[in-house]
Specification:
Length: 440
């Protein structure tokens, strides 16, 4: 069956761009697997192929060049950096693998694609020895972000250090607070305190409805602040029908049981009738551009009273060296530079949250962005990330858990109680694990 002409052209274009990149075709004399060792190819010893999947904005080459490319050229003048971003069709993992153009470095979503793409395609490489060899100080990294990488396997292999973070914050519409005479939220507030604000600010005036509070249930569950794992750490099954998960669900569902505050979308905030919304910090720019008259600011994400000053688990992108790369030392030197205080300060100025525990880097946040001036951006750093769950035992099957379905459709659409909704998703996921195991 012939491929669509459009897809074929896109694939051909991608392969043309990738021609001459570092990795050799599988089975060739230069293929690390074929030779049993990673010897650099003499014809392209000073080329490095970097493949970005996330952050999504690197699809625009000018953004990549402004934020990363120009600095790598200055730091490594003798190295040719080739950059390609994921695209559909033509530049997906499967396309690069089929073409034998395996990247040296992959930058991708740590939670979403490490197991689903990198490990599934046997691209992962344990960087522990390189970290020791180059005396890379991992203690300077966000503890929760680094733990998330070490907790992928029970033996603590490090497949990629955190590179950029995308943290959740509380947005609030100052005009709505002023209209109803309510004090603005502050850093360090609990869900209980925010719930009381949400009740005061949810109003219906004629045909206009003011929603007090919105938070995306799926993201809330996935990056939960109670460090709960949806999969059993010791058995091949889901583990959602627990007191911890019930506490988590009940905490959020009460907000949507406030009359007139039913869930719609966190992205309705720029419309000007939503008092509070929890979303990622990048929305500071996006929402400003959508409504330049929006009078808003941010505070730290609300936390649980028994886990104070704790925001969501890290929502982050990591930098991976591939097993197939024959430039591992050079690749690690590039990653080390990307994680230097010098480089992370430049990224911070562009509104990118750094994994470095550096006051200098944090104080530089958003300095280059006029949309962030006057905003309380330091609230992003006012609380710590929740620690990720511990590693699961070796050999257990990984599947995506449809946590978003607990709320929609089960709670919002079918009015299920919390225990029933959690049990249904647990059963569905466990069946999915069994199906995945049978298919192996």
């Amino acid at each position: 069956m012939k491929k669509p002409v459009k897809a074929s052209l896109a694939l051909a274009s991608a392969l043309a761009i990738l021609a001459g990149c570092t990795a050799a075709p599988a089975g060739s004399a230069q293929d690390p697997k074929a030779s049993g060792e990673n010897k650099p190819a003499p014809s392209n010893a000073n080329e490095l192929f970097i493949y970005t999947v996330y952050p999504a904005f690197y699809v625009k080459e000018e953004i990549w060049e402004k934020q990363i490319g120009q600095y790598l050229k200055k730091k490594f003048p003798d190295v040719t950096i080739k950059h390609v971003h994921w695209d559909n069709p033509g530049r997906q993992y499967k396309d690069l693998i089929a073409a034998g153009t395996i990247p040296d470095i992959i930058i991708d979503n740590a939670r979403g694609n490490l197991q689903k793409e990198i490990m599934k395609n046997d691209l992962q490489y344990d960087m522990t020895e390189l970290i020791k060899k180059y005396n890379f100080d991992t203690s300077k990294l966000n503890p929760a972000a680094f733990a998330q990488m070490k907790n992928v396997t029970p033996d603590g292999k490090i497949y990629g250090p955190p590179f950029q973070l995308s943290d959740f914050v509380l947005f609030y519409n100052k005009d709505i607070f002023d209209k109803f005479g309510v004090d603005y939220p502050k850093d360090g507030m609990t869900y209980d305190e925010i719930y009381e604000l949400g009740k005061k600010l949810t109003r219906v005036e004629g045909e206009k409805t003011y929603k007090g509070y919105q938070q995306h249930p799926g993201l809330y569950m996935t990056y939960n602040q109670l460090s709960l794992s949806p999969l059993s750490l010791t058995e091949d099954k889901a583990e959602l029908n627990t007191e911890g998960w019930k506490k988590l669900v009940d905490n959020l569902r009460r907000f949507y049981e406030i009359p007139a505050n039913q869930f719609t979308s966190v992205d309705d905030f720029p419309k000007g009738t939503m008092a509070m919304s929890v979303h990622v910090s990048e929305k500071i720019i996006q929402w400003y551009e959508q409504n330049k008259n929006l009078n808003f600011d941010i505070a730290s994400m609300p936390s649980f009273s028994d886990v104070p000053n704790t925001k969501a688990q890290p929502n982050m992108y990591s930098a991976y060296i591939t097993k197939q790369s024959n430039k591992k030392d050079l690749a690690f030197q590039v990653i080390s530079y990307l994680l230097s205080e010098e480089m992370q300060t430049e990224l911070s100025k562009e509104g990118i949250i750094s994994p470095l525990e550096s006051k200098k880097v944090q104080e530089a946040f958003g300095k280059n962005l006029p949309q962030m001036q006057g905003k309380h951006t330091q609230s992003i750093f006012a609380s710590k990330n929740a620690m990720p769950p511990a590693a699961r035992a070796n050999g257990l099957t990984y599947v995506d858990v449809p946590l978003h379905n607990v709320f929609s459709p089960l709670i919002f659409g079918e009015s299920k109680d919390s225990v029933t909704a959690l049990r249904m998703i647990e059963e569905q996921t466990t069946k999915g694990i069994q199906t995945a195991k049978a298919a192996k």
